[in-house]
């Protein structure tokens, strides 16, 4: 099924740095229609539904009944120059984690008993506590899940992983590439430390006691619900950000709302220079084409354009100098030892020429000797 759409023209009175709601809705409708048609086709052919996932994609462990929709944001300049394994959280109007059967694994500081007591408290929402099937401390995580297979089993047993913000930066070394080769199930940080942790720190309370402190059950529940209502954003060196903003089960209007909210928040929070640094915004499924939601009219960054404009006269002068230098270079002899060809490359080239000359001389001597021998044989 061909996926076709076009970018609507913006009114001249409107700012270009804004997603057109009509265009976002058209792209959402076309993409969801395509995904559902592909799923129906696979079901009719008797193939497994998870074959729709692209080979080697980050959603290898995605739930069988929910194919993800990704927002791809491309920028004109680098977003970051280093790989950030700790994801940030972007709130969206429609949560991707509303499935009541989705299980949650909560990774906490030591001792884990404090968090277990908070979850078991009567004030903690029962609808949320039933979904938390495992609470494990960092030390027990290190002791029980040492091998690759044990970590892979842990990954398969749970749908969502949450981690205490105080230890989330240590988890990449503990969990390894099983969790961090993709982005689908990376632990999402939650802040469950008590609000008076700064006051306790000022009183020089031991670090072990500060890390063991946990907020009230109400605050813990609120932080977990807040994390479930957000989408994680993981930054890597480059010009692209991929954010999972929807599911196949969404309506076009829900997907449109999430796309707009996620794009605005991601640009505001992570993209230097904001919308002026954005080149394009697309949405796609693991196997579909990328449908455009927003395309920049100007592919150059503002600071680059300003630099070129300010130095236009200098650029013209440099071009004249380049033309003059190219004329001088044509007049130079090939075997000169001055100029840009001098140095190691020049020495290597001269050595190769000497070797070739010796080989040619030796070849001429052999040919002359052969000619003389043939003359004497004829006589």
TrEMBL record:
Keywords: Proteasome. InterPro entries: Ribosomal_uL1-like, Ribosomal_uL1/biogenesis, Ribosomal_uL1_3-a/b-sand. Residues 196-210, 343-369 have a biased composition (Basic and acidic residues). Gene3D superfamilies: 3.40.50.790. The keyword Transmembrane does not apply. Coiled coil: none annotated. Residues 190-210, 326-379 are annotated as: Disordered. This is Proteasome-interacting protein cic1. It comes from Lithohypha guttulata. GO terms for cellular component: proteasome complex.
